[in-house]
Amino acid sequence: MSFSAADLAELARSVPPPDSDAGRSASARVDALATPPGALGRLADLAIALAAATGVCPPVAPVRPTLLIAAADHGVHRQGVTMWPQSVTAAIADAAVRGDAASAVLAAGAGAELVVLDVGIIEPTVAHPRLLRAQVAPGTADLTTGPAMTSDQALAAVGAGADAARNLIAGGADLLAVGDIGIANTTSTAALTAAFTGRSAAEATGRGAGADDPTLERKRNAVATAVRRVGSETDPFVLLCQLGGLEHAALVGAVLSAAAKRVPVVLDGAITLSAALVAVALAPSLSEHLIASHAPAEPAGPIALAHLGLVPIIDLQLRLGEGSGALLAVPIIRAAAAVVQRTARLDQLG
Known about the structure:
Helix content: 40-55%
CATH architecture of the largest domain: 3-Layer(aba) Sandwich
EC number: 2.4.2.21
Strand order of the largest sheet: 3-2-1-4-5-6
Order of helices and strands: HHHEHHEEHEHHHHHEHEHH
CATH superfamily of the largest domain: Nicotinate-nucleotide-dimethylbenzimidazole phosphoribosyltransferase (CobT), large domain
Protein name: Nicotinate-nucleotide--dimethylbenzimidazole phosphoribosyltransferase
Number of strands: 6
CATH topology of the largest domain: Rossmann fold
Number of helices: 14
Largest sheet: 6 strands, parallel
Catalytic activity: 5,6-dimethylbenzimidazole + nicotinate beta-D-ribonucleotide = alpha-ribazole 5'-phosphate + nicotinate + H(+)
Radius of gyration: 20 Å
Enzyme class: transferase
Keywords: Cobalamin biosynthesis, Glycosyltransferase, Transferase
Strand content: 5-15%
CATH class of the largest domain: Alpha Beta
């Protein structure tokens, strides 16, 4: 079934506001716990946010966390913005579902299911039950010379992400972590971040997967060219088409779909944060359903975090992607819910 602009608008409208009653009840519960005032620090904030997002107080610790990794390639690769060949995208996707990519190791440690959604990988991948094939196109077009995606392509990728999240939730997922795989996707991420926040290409562009100085210069030039090309455009969907990747579009659909079901979303690094910029512009109440897992080393990440008003749980200077930071945050999210749910109240002591 095709996914239309009307479907996207309906999906955005379906994202509910936070449940203020549940949030207030969770706050009151924290205040009543047998702990010194403020002793739980940001764990308390996280528990209150979980209650408001899910509409349940006390917040319930997730038992079926699931990582959805959206994967695709990028036409801007031809501008020499990375030192890595595009074949790496398929290789990492294969390793993730096989179980020996870094994300798969971390997923096993966190007790999380891992699924890779292929919306635009160029090289062949090996069939696997955890690899969902929903390829829209063999990568995007070059964003320095024109739109990265047609509107139909972007809508199809959004729809694929929304469907994947919806199916995972129907299967029992109660916390959706999101990640990405895609060589050159930090270039489109920098362009999206600059366009949505008003920051310069130089500020938003980093070394990605270890770019040397000449590569970084080409990357900054590509981002500057793309952002200059879109001018003063502010429509979030148009900007997604112009500057984003197919995996960005899929992530937009996934986070909107999860939030519509009141399933909290754990963002990873700069790529997922730039997708969140698009999604929140489409559905402002979405921001209350998002959890920032970590502070990415890639400069677009902190810029997007500040724009979204999100405070990350951890800061390990990660720049891996693949949902790695989101997975590391899962045990802390579980702990936040559990401590508020199970700690005795002052009035229950002796």
